[in-house]
Structures are given as C-alpha cells and as structure tokens.
Amino acid sequence: MYKHYEGTAKKRSNDNESPKKRKNLLHFRDMPPHLQFNPYIFTGYRPLLTFWGSINSLFYLHNETINILTHGIPIVYILVTVPGLMPWEHIESRFLPWCHIIGAVSPWIGSFVYHLFMNLERGEVVYYKLLQLDMLGIWISQSFGALPMVYASVFCLSWVCRWLILSSYCLLSMWGLYKALTAWSPWERRLCFLLPFVMRVLLCGLRYSPLGGGDPASLVHVILQVRSVSDILSALGGAIGAMHIPEKWFPGTVDMYLNSHNIMHVLVVMAVYSMHQATVRDLLWMAHVDCRTGHQPTDTFGGLQDAAEL
C-alpha cells in the first residue's frame, strides 16, 4: 500500500520540481500514509521531493507555505533583534539570558526544518526523524527558555529549597524530553510537556506569596497576563492543532491558510513574545533585588535604571 502512494507521489514529483509545473500539487488521497495526518485538508500537498525540490518549494504556494513562513520569519527576527534587546549592562551572569535566546529561537528552527523537508523522498523513517527534531526544538524552549522564570521565582529562597526546586524542574524536563521523542500521536506529543507546565503554574502561584521572587511590578500584568498566557497560548494552540479546528467544520475550505496548524503557529509565536517580555523583567529584577533586606525594585522597565544611578 505504501509503495502505491510513494509511486504516485514520486511520479508527479519530477513534474512539480519543474518551474513551469511546480504548482501541480496533490490531493490527500495521493499522499503516502505518514503524510496523511489531517484528513480535513484535501488539496495543496507537495509530492515527494528531493532536498533541492524542498528548497524550491519555498517559492510557490502549497498547504505548508504558511507553516514554513510563520516559523522561518521569527528565526531571522529573533536572531537579529533579541540579543540586542537583552539588558546585558545590568546583569552579571550570561547564562540565563542565553538560555532565553536559545529557548526563543529553537522551536522555530526545528519546526521550520520539519515543515520544509517533511516531503523528502527518503520515506517514513526520515519523516519521523524530522518530527523528533521539531519536538526537540519545542523541548528546548519549554526547558531552557523557561529557566529565567523558574530561577526568578525561587531566587530569594534558601539555597536548599532553590536547588531542590530547580533539580525537580530539570528532572521533569528530562522526562518530558523522553516522552516527546517517543510519542506517536498528536495528543501524546502535546501532553509530554504537561508536568513541566504544571510546575511552572505552581511557581507562578509561589510568586504571589511573600516567599516567591520575580518582578513585583508585573505580578498582575506579566505573571497573570503574560507568563501564564504564554503557556496557555501554547496549550491552546496545541489543542486546536490536535482537534483539527476549524477545518473539521469546513473540510477542504482552509487547505492553504487559516487551518488549525496555521493558527497554532501564530499562537505559539505570540507565546514566545510574551515569554520574552516577562524574562527581561525578571532578569532586571534579579539584578537589583536585595533578598536579605527585602528591598525590591519598583519598576524594571521604567524608573529602575534611574534609581540605580541615584
């Protein structure tokens, strides 16, 4: 059965790699089983392609174009702008800022490579390797990218409590990595990050207590509306992608754009932007807080620098 689909897709691949016929895209029924993951997207499928055929697909419209662009553009933007936006002059350690930068760009790199090369004519084995690369990028974002928030939350605790919580988070993240790389269904891939997500929610609760750390001026606007929303947006995007909404309601009408995977991509881009805003605030807060006296900066984005100079 697989050879039938593979033969059909390969038969049309040479025509599609020709500049004159590159828009002769395939129907869902023409694709091999491992590429038939959304039965409500009927048309716009690329055939099985060579490496250069996949690169060439950047320059014509198909049903993965939006997915590729919504993650390819953030890669360039983050690498060009985010390092310059970090408050390097106010912080001593470079580890947490670089965790944030790596965590911010990694999911887009993995997803961009996956969506661009998912139609390689190497078969199902290579496809699942690309899918694992995609999941690895998400894991790096969920683990390393969240470390500034996690560390800020426990910053003023005793070193025993601090390292106990950090070690627990690292162990849960490693468990999530194992589950991510061994998952075989969309729901399994999304639920593999559940335990680290729950721990981040608990740490958000800790920040409201007298023992918790983090930027106090942004507890409501950043922790509730930004940091929590970054996780909620990611979870919401994953749920939309797994349930195939809205194409499940309108089969074949949103094949090229506005389907569930397109929506998920936009939501997770918004989530990483929220993560960046909260991370910069937390880094500045940790640079100026005095845990021994309880003195805390009042405005990490506004008057903090002026107060420090005074």
UniProtKB/TrEMBL annotation:
It is a multi-pass membrane protein. One of its GO terms (molecular function) is metal ion binding. Keywords: Membrane, Metal-binding, Receptor, Transmembrane, Transmembrane helix, Zinc. Pfam families: HlyIII. The chain crosses the membrane at residues 95-118, 130-151, 157-178. Residues 1-19 have a biased composition (Basic and acidic residues). It is found in: Membrane. InterPro entries: AdipoR/HlyIII-related (IPR004254). Zn(2+) binds at H115, H261, H265. It comes from the Eukaryota. Residues 1-20 are annotated as: Disordered. Its main location: membrane. Belongs to the ADIPOR family. This is Progestin and adipoQ receptor family member 4. The gene is PAQR4.
